[in-house]
Write a structure and sequence with these properties.
The structure holds 2 protein chains of 2 kinds.
Chain A (H helix, E strand, L loop, with lengths): L2 E7 L8 E7 L8 H14 L22 E2 L2 E2 L24 E5 L8 E3 L2 E2 L2 H8 L21 H11 L6 H5 L6 H12 L8 H14 L10 H5 L7 H13 L4
Helix pairs in contact in A: 2-6, 3-5, 5-6, 5-8, 6-8
Chain B lengths: L8 E2 L13 H11 L5 H4 L3 E5 L3 H13 L2 E5 L17 E2 L11 H11 L6 H21 L24 E2 L5 H19 L2 E4 L2 E9 L2 E9 L5 E5 L2 E4 L20 H8 L4 E2 L4 E7 L22 E5 L17 E2 L1 H5 L9 H13 L7 E5 L6 E5 L2 E4 L1 H7 L1 H19 L8 E10 L2 E2 L12 E3 L17 H21 L12 H20 L5 H16 L2 E2 L1 H21 L11 H25 L8 E2 L13 H4 L1 E6 L8 E6 L14
Parallel strand pairs in B: 1-24, 2-3, 2-10, 3-6, 10-20, 21-22
Antiparallel strand pairs in B: 4-5, 7-8, 8-9, 11-19, 11-23, 12-18, 13-14, 13-17, 15-16, 17-18, 23-24
Helix pairs in contact in B: 1-5, 3-6, 3-12, 4-5, 5-12, 10-11, 14-15, 14-16, 15-16
Classes of the chains: A alpha+beta, B alpha/beta.
Chain lengths: 250, 664
């Protein structure tokens, strides 16, 4: 295949960026999108040009490090109806000779570091604000001393599968990080171990979310539509319910 | 032919002197009692550097933070949550005996030593089995959503050929859930101020002062700033080095650099040639492939593995190949175990079938390094679910394996319900690593090594669901209870930026970076990495020969020389420069690769997944030589290209009787 790319190039956070066109030849349809970028980068390097910077690591769709906007969609649209990560998007999802736009996640809370690489440390600070259960190593009770009903445990698990990639933020017209925050809140709120800190957690995490400059949630639903782990939109309802209840709990 | 002494020399034996005397079930509690304590007020005055944020590093940093030490934690990714532990699928073993099936610490210990082909240290493995139950308690308390039964209690399954159900799991994402648990504990400590987190920082040098590890030099991967950081102790939790093979199931960023810098500063490297090969990966599709993906081994419970009997059939649609023209080779050779033979046997036989020219799938160009010629070879065998679908129905198969079938379809574009899957072995986990004693301290005072980065408790052939167990055991329970003994003598003298050892370490990092940037040759970093990976896979992978390993060592030396004269690294240091990052790592892989081959060369026995062609039984099975090789091989660095020194740590089996393996 031959692929024409238009890629966002930006040397660093301080400089302005622009779209630059490249032509990639000998693309195989079995390649992942990132392998196609590798191929282009090898070519650029041989020519003595600066390769395109992009984040990636496991290339198995689980570490959450990769992620670019492809033709306007976070992680791109694959041939299959299920959304996926950029590393699990394959070139067979594109036509031979296609022109593809590649841009970084665009959100105020995710500043660009270089080219397609953005800074997502705001997510870590949301977790620092309460996205955990306070238990020191060695002080845990016997695991079977606290049974967890299967239905709630399964719902906790569905929320816990969030990989923190940030596609939800990139897809949201408001640049909101609410799906990420709600996934963690739902995960921990569904488990008996999460109850003691349940209401303080939702307050502090939402406050940090807002402080980081993420936008508010207006129930558009783009976040859940692009989520490679299919985090359900109703986690945001859970967040809202818990946030409301937290006003009456100390 | 050259003799082995051309490649290495033998030094004095070494011993682990930290494991206390007494019965094995008392050793860990005795050691904890004997280890010196640090009172809470003094812990505030002490600092520990932890490199890595996976199960071993993240858990250790969080736990040391909870104890009140000042922890400086580093990772190369943008967030500690990305560490490669997150990709582990299967599960984590623990001797909880929740199934009332006679499981016990002793039985987990026994299975692990046997599964490691009697090449792991008894004392460490026993401790691992002993603390395994606490790991489950800890993770459940953190909110890790393990699979549960309707009564609300934890579910278990069996894994990796053991006869009890002791594996705890969270769908196919156990590693992710365990890592997120550790990450959340870590972020809690960051908020509490006990842990300072440095993301997008890479360790490039170890600082040794008066025989003690006192700090590291890092490169800020965003700005290029090269900085020295000092502390009272250094912990490396930097994972494995499977990426020396280029293609592996490891994350792309996994590297050996931190461990290798420590090795160059004197830390012994234990059993470097021990690599776990996993039989059920999606095969290579072409030369531009960057990565291999593992498919859960559970598929072998219902899938039947075969290749065509006749090489002429390899190109055919498999559905058109008649039953009598198929060779279900595992069922044929190992009727007792069939498709469920251990990982190493399943892997090696798949390779044998493809070497015979009966592999399936797209043909891949392979370079014969000796002649320089390329040959085209199919590298895949069928994993067929047709009879399972017939027996159980498509719905039942979908319920059991649906997510794996979807993953396969996504990557290959083929529908595995209709045509058989194709699988091939791939490099998965490295059991070698820096040598450590019972306290997890390397032979360098003050340098501790945990998780996959140490030479590990698994011996030669890790069982399934053991790696997660070791990472968390080291991080939550072992290291935090042994490092006190060392820190009780701290704080050590503060080091200024102008201390000669600090200046030397920074200068060596800067010189190395400058050198990489100034070569400006014609070959890309990846082209060297791929060539090295090919050599390693061909000569130091599943099957090794004396002649092949000697050839590989020579070829790696030539390649390393070419790298340092002809590599092209674009850009500048004072920038976000991914090419420079990779170049530094590949330079280290080029040295490690040679050591792996030297280690494989000296070990003239087949053990674990490592088949030494010269050491086999009459019917072609792996043959260990306990009389000659019952030891850990710990290597001392003597300069790149110089002969390393082998120190042997004899292994003593007091509780477990050595047996030859048999699966026929």
């Amino acid at each position: 295949m031959i692929i024409n790319l238009r890629v966002w190039r930006q040397p660093n956070a301080q400089s302005a960026g622009k779209m630059v066109s490249y032509r990639v030849e000998d693309v195989s349809e079995d390649m992942s999108f990132l392998e196609m970028l590798d191929l282009l980068n090898e070519d650029l390097t041989v020519k003595g040009e600066e390769p395109i910077a992009f984040d990636h690591d496991c290339r198995e769709g689980i570490c959450g490090m990769c992620g670019v906007v492809i033709n306007g969609a976070a992680h791109g649209r694959s041939a299959s109806p299920v959304p996926t990560t950029t590393c699990q998007l394959h070139m067979r999802s594109f036509a031979d000779g296609a022109t593809i736009d590649v841009e970084p996640w665009r959100a105020g809370a995710f500043p660009v570091i270089k080219d397609l690489v953005v800074d997502r440390t705001a997510f870590d600070r949301i977790i620092q604000a309460g996205g955990f259960i306070s238990v020191n190593a060695g002080s845990a009770p016997e695991a079977h001393s606290v049974p967890a009903p299967k239905a709630e445990a399964d719902r906790a698990f569905d929320a816990a599968t969030c990989i923190g990639c940030g596609a939800c933020v990139a897809a949201c017209p408001n640049g909101s990080g609410m799906l990420f925050t709600a996934a963690k809140i739902t995960h921990l709120a569904m488990l008996p171990q999460g109850q003691p800190e349940r209401y303080s957690r939702v307050r502090t995490m939402v406050a940090q979310h807002d402080e980081e400059g993420f936008g508010g949630c207006t129930n558009i639903g783009e976040c859940s539509a692009v989520c490679p782990k299919q985090i359900p939109l109703d986690t945001i309802s859970q967040l809202n319910r818990d946030l409301m209840k937290s006003l009456f709990k100390r | 032919m050259s003799t082995n002494t051309d490649f290495f020399e033998v030094g004095a034996d070494i011993r682990d002197t930290k494991a206390p005397a007494g019965p094995i079930e008392r050793k860990w509690s005795t050691r904890k009692f004997e280890a010196k304590l640090v009172n809470p007020a003094n812990r505030r005055k002490l600092s520990v550097i932890v490199v890595g944020t996976g199960l071993a590093g993240g858990a250790a940093a969080a736990t040391l933070g909870e104890a009140g030490y000042n922890v400086l934690n580093y990772c190369y990714q943008d967030s500690p949550r990305r560490a490669h532990s997150i990709a582990a699928q299967g599960g984590i073993n623990a001797a909880k005996n929740y199934r009332n099936d006679n499981d016990s610490t002793m039985r987990l210990f026994y299975d692990t030593v046997k599964g490691g082909d009697y090449r792991a240290r008894e004392t460490n493995v026993y401790r691992l089995a002993e603390v395994s139950a606490n790991i489950i308690d800890q993770c459940v308390a953190q909110g890790v959503p393990f699979a549960r039964e309707y009564g609300g209690l934890l579910d278990n399954r069996s894994f990796g050929g053991v006869q009890v159900q002791r594996t705890f799991y969270a769908r196919g994402q156990t590693g992710q859930q365990l890592l997120i648990g550790a990450y959340q504990s870590l972020e809690r400590q960051v908020a509490a101020g006990t842990v300072q987190m440095f993301t997008r920082h890479e360790m490039l040098e170890l600082i040794m002062v008066d025989g003690r590890a006192r700090g590291i030099v890092t490169r800020n991967m965003v700005t290029g700033a090269i900085e020295a950081v000092t502390a009272d102790a250094v912990v490396l939790a930097t994972g494995g080095y499977g990426n020396v093979f280029f293609l592996s199931t490891n994350a792309m960023g996994c590297n050996v650099t931190a461990a290798w810098r420590a090795h160059r500063k004197g830390a012994y490297f234990g059993n470097p040639c021990y690599t776990q090969i996993h039989p059920t990966c999606i095969p290579v599709h072409g030369e531009t492939q960057s990565k291999l993906t593992l498919m859960s081994e559970s598929l072998r419970n219902d899938g039947r593995i075969w290749v065509p009997k006749n090489a002429e059939d390899c190109e055919k649609d498999p559905r058109l190949i008649a039953e009598e023209d198929r060779d279900y080779y595992l069922e044929r050779i190992y009727p007792a175990f069939g498709n469920l033979v251990p990982r190493d046997i399943a892997s090696r036989q798949a390779k044998n079938m493809c070497d015979e020219g009966r592999g399936v799938g797209p043909a891949v160009e392979e370079v014969n390094h000796r002649t320089g010629e390329t040959q085209s070879r199919r590298r895949g065998v069928y994993l067929d679910f047709a009879s399972a679908i017939e027996r159980l129905g498509r719905d039942a198969v979908e319920k059991k394996y649906g997510n794996l079938f979807d993953m396969y379809a996504q990557i290959t574009g083929e529908n595995p319900y209709e045509t058989p899957m194709r699988i091939y072995p791939a490099v998965h986990y490295t059991m070698g690593g820096l040598w450590v004693d019972y306290d997890l301290q390397s032979n360098l005072t003050g340098l501790y090594v945990t998780g996959e980065a140490n030479f590990s408790d698994h011996g030669a052939n890790r069982l399934g669901a053991s790696a997660l167990m070791q990472g968390l055991a080291d991080g939550y329970f072992v290291l935090p209870n042994t490092i006190n003994d060392y820190l009780a003598a701290a704080p050590f003298e503060p080091l200024g930026e102008d201390h000669p050892a600090v200046v030397e370490a920074i200068t060596s990092v800067k010189d190395r970076v400058d050198r990489l940037l100034s070569i400006n040759g014609t070959r890309t970093v990846d082209s060297f990495h791929k060539e090295l990976g090919n050599i390693m896979w061909e000569y130091c992978g599943m099957e090794r020969t004396e002649e092949g390993l000697q050839f590989a060592i020579g070829r790696i030396r030539e390649l390393r020389e070419e790298f340092w004269s002809n590599v092209k690294v674009t850009g500048a240091n004072e920038d976000f420069n991914q090419t420079l990052e990779r170049a530094g790592r590949v330079a280290d892989f080029l040295e490690l690769g040679e050591l792996m081959c030297v280690d494989a060369l000296h070990r003239r026995e087949s053990c674990g997944g490592h088949f030494r062609a010269e050491s086999q039984t009459e019917d072609g099975e792996a043959l260990r030589h306990d009389d000659e090789f019952l030891y850990v091989g710990a290597w001392e660095f003597t300069g790149a290209g110089n002969r390393p020194i082998l120190h042997k740590e004899p292994l003593e089996y007091e509780y477990i009787e050595l047996k030859q393996r048999s699966y026929k």
